[in-house]
Amino acid sequence: MHKILVEPPGPKSLQIVQTIQKNCYDSTFTYPLVISDGQGCTLKDADGNVFLDFTSNIGACPLGYCHPDVMAVLTNWTKNGAHKIAGQDFYSNEHVLLSEAFVSILPDNFKVFFINSGAEAVENAVKLAYRKQFASGNPIMPGVSCINAFHGRTLGALSFTFSKPVQKAGFPELPVLRIKFCSSDADSEVDSIHKLLEQNKVAFILTEVIQGEGGYNFAGQKFISNLRKAADSHGVPLIFDEVQSGMGRTGRWWAFEHYGVLPDIMAAAKALQVGAAAYKKDYDPGQQGVLSSTWGGGSRIDMAVGTKIIEVIKRDRLLDNATKMGTILKKGLAEFVGRGGIIDVRGIGLMVGIEFDTKARRDAALQELFKKGLLLLPAGQKAMRVIPPLTVGPEEIEEGLQLISLVA
Questions:
Q1: Beta-bridge mates of residue 205
Q2: In CATH, what is the architecture of 74-315?
């Protein structure tokens, strides 16, 4: 249960925030939350306030906080004197265990390269696609990505990101062509990929199945099917970015499973604890050194936690829980449409977006909910993302809905 002891930010939190603002770049902080601890679906701040967390730290904490299985891993592995190694230069058993667990939830005939983050997973997915095309004698060609896409902030990934102008202004980019991300089968541009590939030679198609940072937009069935058909007919690899939507968030391991199509290459991270570029085996470079990283797959603690997360999701049937709790959550949120500026609710599993009529109303609601003890995050221009831990129960869902009703 949430519990607000002092109006946030309290004095301890405020001091920490002010010091960070003095010493560090003011990045993408949404509100002055200073996390000190967590339990279940709640987070505690530096002043002892307890917040109901419907952010899962942008999906990176799928089991919530202080989960007994994760805590056991942390207890055991922190006793290891070599907990971080150069993971692409030296082997470890944690690397083996994570690879076996991860490959078990991938499509057949896939391999994986572990890296540090989601952006780096996308970078290496793109490199794999370019490498395949270059090996076939093709020159460097543009990649295709979507309007409102978010694929990370490193320069290569940023080339294909297109969710907010501030993320791209003043930075160089790799060659890229844009298509509309179509949520409706009736969209007039749902077939645009066919014409684009007929008129242009491209290196790959890169898309999210569900746009995260770009606004929690959910692809239409025909749009995704068209991408697969066009990629096949033109011999172009199809890359899916599942950094936020993957690892059970939608009630299945991967969001693309809802569409009945498979990627050639995919990027994962967040809930996995490390980044991963997964790919069909025929995209393997077949040569050492093409892909590498000092710390890629090198945090033995993170790899052990990632392995345990996959194990717990399977054991505790959390895919089913995501579907059941997501249905309750979405149904409850739908009752607020038409109130407090809320104009739409959309989602799959525990990946739900709330659309507001204006950015100002969305932002005001986020701040008010923070002060009342509920943590949510923005998405796109005027949407709000609701992504509780996969372990969330009906009591927490009801508590969250009650808090949202106070601003709707």
A1: 144, 238
A2: 3-Layer(aba) Sandwich (3.40)
